[in-house]
Design goal:
The protein has helices at about 5-15, 20-60. It is mainly α and about 70 residues long. Keywords: Membrane, Transmembrane, Transmembrane helix.
Length: about 70
């Protein structure tokens, strides 16, 4: 196969491929990003609450000195 034959052959093959709907793609990407941000926020809040709980237990048990 010669190099000149590749272009028309690729054109024929690409005509058979379905068109990508950019609006649908953008919507899907937006939904994925929104879920990821929500998940990250929830994980961050849970980690902060866990740390606060550990510190509170440490103060209550007398492991950390209360200065002041």
């Amino acid at each position: 196969m010669r190099r000149e034959d590749i272009g028309p052959l690729l054109g024929q093959v690409s005509d058979d491929l379905p068109e990508v709907h950019l609006a649908d793609r953008a919507w899907t990407t937006g939904v994925i990003l929104k879920r990821r941000r929500r998940r990250t926020t929830v994980v961050g809040v849970l980690v902060a609450l866990g740390i606060a709980l550990v510190v509170a237990v440490a103060f209550a048990a007398g492991w950390l000195p209360v200065s002041g």
